[in-house]
Structures are given as C-alpha cells and as structure tokens.
Amino acid sequence: MTNGLQDQWNHCWINGEKHCLPTALDVTNPATGEMVGRVPLGGEREARLAVDAAAQAFPQWAQLPAQTRAGYLMEWAERIVRDRDVLAELLTAEQGKPLDEARDELEGAAAFIRWYAEEGKRAYGEVIPASRHQQRIMVLRQPVGVAALITPWNYPAAMVARKMAPALAAGCTAVLKPARQTPLIAVALFDRLMETGLPAGAANLVTGAADAIGGTWLSDSRVRKISFTGSTEVGKQLMRRAADQVKRLSLELGGNAPVIVFPDADLERAAEAIVANKFENAGQMCNGINVIYAHQEIADALTERIVARVRHLRVGAGTEPCVQVGPLIDENAVHRAEQLVADAREKGARVLTGGYRLTAGAYARGHFFAPTVLDGVTRAMAVTREEIFGPIAPIVRFASEEEVLRWANETPYGLAAYVFTRDLGRSWRMSEALEFGMVAVNGTSLSVPQAPFGGIKESGVGREGGHHGLAEFMDVKYVALTLPD
C-alpha cells in the first residue's frame, strides 16, 4: 500500500476538525504482517482537547430536540451502508476477519445507529401520584454529560456504533478511543459521521497511547461517564480509578460462555449453531462459546457432528474467497492458543482436529491457528477455566442437569450461556438458574439492537442495546413541585 493510502486515516477528530500529529501509530494486517495504515499517536494533550470540545458542545447538543439528534444519526447510518463494501475491506485489512463477517458487522453497526436514533425520541419521564394536596411529582431523564468511550479490536466497527449511538441519542457529547490494533475503521466511521454536519465537539476521536488518553479522561471531572469493552483486568483498573470521582461506568468484560447440550436436543441444529458461534471471528468474541458441555448419552454423536463441520472450515486471509476463519489478532494470541492446547494435552485431552499453528505457504507471515476440537477435556484444564479467545472448542461430558449447572456457574465470569433442549421445563429451569447476564436456548445469537447485552459478576456492569442501553447515558432527576396557593 502506498504512503498516500496509508496516511488517509492519519488524523483524529477534535471539535469538528481533523487533527494530525508528527508521530504516528502503524497498523498491520494480521494475515500478512504488512502495514495497512497509520493513525496519530495522541496522548494527554489530545485527550484534554477532546474533552474541552465535548464539554463546550454539551449544553447546546443536550438541548436539541431528540428528533434533530436522530437526523444526524440516521444520516450517519445511511453513509455507512452506502460505503459498506469499502469499509468492510478496511476492517478486514486491519482486523483479519472474513469479508462476509466484516460486511455483516457494518450492517449491524448501522442497525444499532438507526435503532438508537428512534429510541432517543422515547426517553420518557414520569408523573407520580403525590402525597399532599398541591404537590406534583415528576421524574426527568437527562443526559449525564461528557461520555468517554473505549472500544475493543475484535468488533471495531460495531462497538463504535453501539457506544456512540446511544450516547449521542441521549444528548451526551462523546470522546472515543479505539483499540490500537484496529483504529482505522473508527477513523473511517468518524469521517462519515462528520460528513453529516454534526455540531462541532459533539463527537471527538483520539487515537494513540491508551494509558495517557484513558488516564486523562479518568482524572477529568468533566467526564461523567466511562463506557469500556475489553478485558476484566483493565475493567477492574478503570473501576478503581473511576471511584475517585464516582464516575458512572458501563463495563463489558471477559467471558467464559458454556453451551450445554442435553440428550433431547436436535443434534444437527446444535452442532451447526455451536460451530458457527465458536469459530466466528476466529473465536475472538466475548460472548463466544468457551466450553461445550455434552451429555454423556449424546456426547459421541454431537462430537462427531462438530468435528465433521470443523474439518471443512476454510482458514485464510479474510480477503480470500470462501474463507470462514481468519487470523488471530497478533502473535500473543497465537502463543496463548498453543499454550491452552498444550496444557489440555498434558492433562489427558485428545486433539480430534487442529491443535497447531498454521505456518506453511500463505500462512507464513500471518497469525493463523488451525480450528481445533478437543475431547476428553476435564475441568482441571485451563481451557475450561480461562477465556480462550481463539478457535479452540473443548468438549466436556456431563451426567446430570444438576452437575452441569454447578460446573457452568463455577466461574467468576457471567456474560453469556447457551442451552440446547426440547424440554420446556428444563429450558426455564436452566435459564433462571444459570448465573449469566444472557442465556440463549436452542440458538446462539444474542446481539440485537433492541435487547440488553451485558454480563454479571466479573463480566461487567451495565448494558448495551435496548432502552437499557440508552438509560446508561441518562441521569434520573426527581422534581417535587408544590403549587402556590
């Protein structure tokens, strides 16, 4: 790629203007190792300028009618859909996922933006029956103020939309920092947002040093809200630092999602859904399946179906035709996958397919790992206790509903869980007893604009999606009015 093309995203957005810096952060393609672009290496100064702009813009933006704010969002969504194919190529180049997945992600991003454009019009208040004559009690919902948004690398387009859309729809102004591995798509999305004529300072983008940018926002009292998606370790650090000013937090953190398949399940349907979920984005999905719990009566039959599908998955660069599994994000991710498989093998697991890094031919310069299925897995193995974030599917056999429920809940995480059964009573029992923020029964799709996405325990606090996601960016104000005589 020529220097001119590499530099087309080499800018931040602060107060409605492009900001370029003398130093830059290189972005590489995880499938080839080639540099695909660069962005400014911003720090404390740029982070402070972004908050200055957002704080100044907040009063005017918050007072705009919801319908007016919705207009900017709807136009932003239209521009994303219009340029979907170009944006998908950029997303794939820096993140690695197959082009079809990148296109779907951009369609999903536009869907979230459209939904919140409409939901912002429904931020209703309340009138409550009073306790005394001439008293009136009202509840108002008002934007919290400047919101700092920090997005991850695994879904770098979707997460910009899932955070920015409800923040702007609620009447907040925003400052956003994308992950250092995948900042290009965030810049490209912001370019299109600015094309809508959005008032200066309503949305600001800073790329660069995570500690300097995040630290500045955490220490600035004008930032009243932090929304972060990433690791549990970093989320805990944010909680500690946000406590100094009692900032509001939304944290979508790590997961250890089980899928539980009972003897009465439709095994073909279960196997198809499990493989589709487990190997989407090369397994780099926070609500992706981590452990497959198969009842001992059907474990062999289910395993056979899963392995047959996994062996036919095509691995390669996301730009290649018919590729279903792209590279992992970096060398550390590959090394971690190798360690998890090695640990499982040493403790008695059998590798039914995969289990190794791909290095020959076209794989030589990328971070590729063969789609893997492990059988004979026990709960003593790290692969069942830790978040995998890679294309590894461990299968654990269980004997009873009580046993598997206990196993599934014995984790500090609580993001998503999946159950396959035709028993209606069991569906309800498992849905209610599983200690997770989301449960899917006879399917593995959870992320939709109208529903609250998020976890409990060490998987985070707060929700994205639905009216719950809008409420994350709004304060509740109680007004007691006594009428004059």
Can you characterise this structure?
- The protein is an alpha/beta fold and 485 residues long.
- It folds into two domains: 3-254 and 459-478, 3-Layer(aba) Sandwich (Aldehyde Dehydrogenase, Chain A, domain 1), CATH 3.40.605; 257-412 and 416-448, Aldehyde Dehydrogenase, Chain A, domain 2 (3-Layer(aba) Sandwich).
- It has 16 helices and 22 strands.
- The strands form six sheets. It has a seven-stranded mixed sheet with strand order 14-17-18-13-12-19-20, with helices on both faces.
- Helix 15 (424-433) links the parallel strand 19 (416-420) and strand 20 (438-441).
- The protein is globular.
Describe how the helices and strands are arranged.
Layout (H helix, E strand, L loop, with lengths): L2 H4 L5 E3 L2 E3 L4 E5 L6 E6 L3 H20 L2 H17 L1 H12 L3 H21 L6 E3 L6 E9 L2 E5 L7 H13 L2 E5 L6 H11 L8 E3 L4 H10 L3 E7 L2 H11 L5 E5 L4 E5 L5 H12 L10 E7 L3 H12 L20 H16 L3 E4 L3 E2 L9 E2 L2 E4 L6 H4 L6 E7 L2 H9 L6 E5 L3 H10 L4 E4 L18 E2 L4 H6 L2 E9 L3
Parallel strand pairs: 7-8, 7-10, 8-9, 10-11, 12-13, 12-19, 13-18, 17-18, 19-20
Antiparallel strand pairs: 1-2, 3-4, 5-6, 6-22, 11-21, 14-17, 15-16
Instruction: Identify the overall geometry.
Output: globular
CATH architecture of the largest domain: 3-Layer(aba) Sandwich
Query: What is the class of the largest domain in the CATH system?
Result: Alpha Beta
- Report strand order across the widest sheet: 14-17-18-13-12-19-20
CATH topology of the largest domain: Aldehyde Dehydrogenase, Chain A, domain 1
What's the total helix number? 16
Tally the beta strands.
Answer: 22
Mean pLDDT: 97
Please state the structural category: alpha/beta
Radius of gyration based on Cα positions: 23 Å
Fourth-tier CATH superfamily name of the largest domain = Aldehyde Dehydrogenase, Chain A, domain 1
Catalogue the unreliable spans: none
Terminal-residue CA separation: 76 Å
What is the total domain count?
A: 2
- The percent of residues in helical segments reads 25-40%
Q: Major sheet, described briefly?
A: 7 strands, mixed
Portion in beta strands: 15-25%
